[in-house]
Design brief:
The chain has helices spanning about 10-15, 20-35, 40-50, 55-65, 85-100, 155-165, 180-185, 205-215, 225-240, 265-285, 285-310, 315-330, 335-350; strands spanning about 75-80, 105-110, 135-145, 170-175, 190-195, 215-220, 255. It folds into three domains: about 15-70, Single alpha-helices involved in coiled-coils or other helix-helix interfaces; about 70-285, 3-Layer(aba) Sandwich (Rossmann fold); about 295-350, no CATH class. It has about 350 residues and is of the alpha/beta class. α5 (about 85-100) crosses α10 and α12 (about 315-330) runs antiparallel to α13 (about 335-350). About 50% of the residues lie in helices and about 10% in strands. A seven-stranded parallel β-sheet has the order 3-2-4-1-5-6-7, with helices on both faces.
């Protein structure tokens, strides 16, 4: 007979008993994070991105273990821009300057997912040919899925893993410019907007929000054939930013003309970024901004969690399902269905 004592709650014992081989793998991943092992870093991020509910406990364990050792001084640089503006090529050029300065860099590139097939190309790394194989650079492309905000659902956790690996800088490349980029802004210490020459006519399309988020605006492709157009675009944006209030305390948006392929102006942009991050870190402004952003992110996460919890309840699904059926059978208008659905949902919420 076995001398092993049974647990007072067998169900709890079963829940808390993690498979040994899985925990061994987790410890291997933790070692890989601490040593900047590229393969193990990628595996840890893949686990964080997993949709399998069984992986969540392991992910929480990893994030808890790495928290005390995160590099809190790691500079978070977010780069966004219209499709075709050259974000990946610009990151390749900027990355060379960062490496030249003797720093390490993690690049998290968010790739848009198809609304039809849900697939992603994940081709950003192919445009970072100069730095892709450098030992001091780690590049991770990630599909956005159906998540809004210009990033993926797991971006925050992925950044924490990279900070635990003690990279000096993280560059986060967003899906593309838009009002939903505000969540990416809240993960940034500095936010760079990349535009093509001739984008002055797009100021209305880009809208006020993204302009107020931008700490630096770069007019890309300042090459022989487009210098005149780039000069005109620069002038328009310098005039535009004077009319707007930047979201950062004690900072006025800077505008640069660059060529990512010819490396024109890249060193100036890097110096501006480096000076910006150093000054704000020393003054305490960066820590204050991060705290404010953390509070905002926490509120959003709470709201999303509560929403998902309520949506999973059978009573609520039945109410939504009934409304969908009535609309599908042309028995009720959308407005009427919404009104009746709200009334039924209020009964559940008021009773709880």
């Amino acid at each position: 007979m076995s001398s092993r004592k049974s647990h007072i709650n067998p169900n709890l014992e079963k829940k808390n008993r993690k498979p040994i081989h899985r925990m061994e793998k987790v410890e291997e991943l933790l070692t890989g994070i601490r040593t900047k092992n590229r393969n193990l870093l990628a595996q840890a991020i893949t686990l964080v991105e997993s949709k399998d509910s069984n992986d969540r406990e392991l992910v929480d364990y990893i994030l808890t273990e790495i928290e005390p050792n995160r590099n809190k001084n790691c500079g978070r640089i977010v780069i966004t821009g219209s499709p075709g503006a050259g974000k990946s090529t610009m990151i390749n050029a900027l990355g060379k300057e960062i490496i030249k300065a003797g720093k390490t860099l993690a690049i998290l590139a968010t790739d848009p997912s198809s609304a039809i097939s849900h697939g992603s190309i994940l081709g950003d790394k192919t445009r970072m040919v100069d730095i892709g194989n450098m030992d001091s650079v780690f590049i991770r492309p990630t599909p956005s899925g159906n998540y809004l905000g210009g990033i993926s659902k797991s971006t925050l956790e992925t950044m924490q893993i990279c900070e635990a690996a003690h990279f000096d800088y993280i560059i986060l490349e967003t899906v593309g410019v838009g009002q939903s980029e505000y969540e990416a802004f809240k993960l940034s210490d500095i936010f760079l907007l990349l535009l093509n020459p001739g984008a002055g006519d797009e100021i209305q399309g880009i809208k006020r929000g993204i302009m107020e988020m931008a700490d630096i605006i770069c007019i890309n492709k300042y090459d022989t054939d487009s210098k005149v157009l780039a000069d005109a675009t620069e002038k328009k944006y310098k005039n535009a930013v004077q009319l707007l209030q930047n979201n950062r305390e004690e900072w006025e948006t800077k505008v640069f003309k660059i060529s990512s392929t010819e490396y024109v102006g890249i060193a100036d942009v890097w110096k501006c970024i480096d000076d910006f991050l150093s000054e704000r870190s020393n003054s305490g402004l960066m820590e204050r901004q991060r705290t404010e952003n953390s509070l905002s992110i926490l509120q959003e996460k709470a709201e999303n969690y509560i929403l998902s919890k309520h949506l999973s309840k059978e009573k609520i699904q039945n109410i939504i399902g009934a409304s969908r059926t009535n609309i599908a059978n042309n028995e009720i208008s959308l407005l009427q269905a919404m009104q009746e659905m709200y009334a039924e949902l209020d009964k559940i919420f008021d009773a709880s």
